[in-house]
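User: Before I run my own analysis I want an independent prediction to cross-check against. Here's the chain; please return only the structure tokens and, at the end, one sentence I can use as a sanity check.
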Amino acid sequence: MKQFIIALTLIIASFTQNAFAGPIRIKDLVEFDGVRGNDLIGYGLVVGLNGTGDGIRNAPFTEEIMSNLLERLGVNITGEQFRPKNVAAVFVTAALPPFARAGSQIDVTVSAIGDAKSLLGGTLIMTPLNAADGQIYAVGQGTIIAGGASVEGDGASVVQGVPTAGVIPAGARVEREIDFDFASLKTLRLALRTPDFTTAGRIETALNKAFGRPVALMLDAGTVQLDITETRAASPAHALGRVENIEVEPQRKARVVVDQRSGTIVMGEDVRISRVAVSQGNLTLRISETPEVVQPNPFATGETVVVPRTTAGLEEEEGTGLAEIQGGTSLSEVIQGLNALGVSPRDMIDILKSIKAAGALHAEFVVR
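Assistant: Structure tokens:
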């Protein structure tokens, strides 16, 4: 107990200052209203597979779209037995970046939706990509780069990674532009990625100071409105080019995130613990099996049998005692002390849960 208190006290005493986040550019803290991407999706075919395509009986939609494609190309296969093994039906997804112009290229992701075993070496056939409004904004085509490998024999198979999904760098060409008249904007809203009244207020103050006049107004914890006309910039693009590089020191919410499966603990430096006492110990359950063979006496009737013999014991390891944590201590200091004493991550998570339940941990506690 004395060793626990001494080690924890020394480590807590070695940390006396609270570290804060340095200045961050506004472009890394907010999203500009209207400056956003759009998701695209399409349904197409991958050809040229080495016998690893869809089984037509299990994926009849592959045969249907293949027949329609061949008919559009002038090949009539009506009534024919069409059983290719080198074709796979896939979903094609992409993100149309803001201000994408017709003719520019974007990356696409290709994922098998049937029972294809691998897309390695396949080629995506021209696939229209639609947005939520049903309009075609891009067309994808190209050779797939899959991120896995699959080897199969008569008696065994080995799969590494995910060979049924891959990407095509610059695999889609933009055919339609998003209608957005950015140059005519008079006001623009800045949406904070992590809403916080203090951070929003600091952004408002920094913008007004940088332009020398009241150009920004905090609307709520997650929104700051920028009056572009008051910035006296040549265009909204010029105004945002100046705004996004202004630095602000954000305020973070006290939060502790733990992952019980991996034993990971992530916390902010501003997490604080009130004065509390902690005692922790372990129980060890030991069970051993020593079966014995029992034989009948000589010239006696009976048979040899195996009799189970089980020994069970419950041991409680001597705990580290009752340790007192002084008020105002940061959680990082407590973790440092527990690590120095060899406390396992899972036991540490249990201790943090108990401290939170006691009302001494002043932070949002998130368990994954």
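Sanity check: The longest helix spans residues 197-211.
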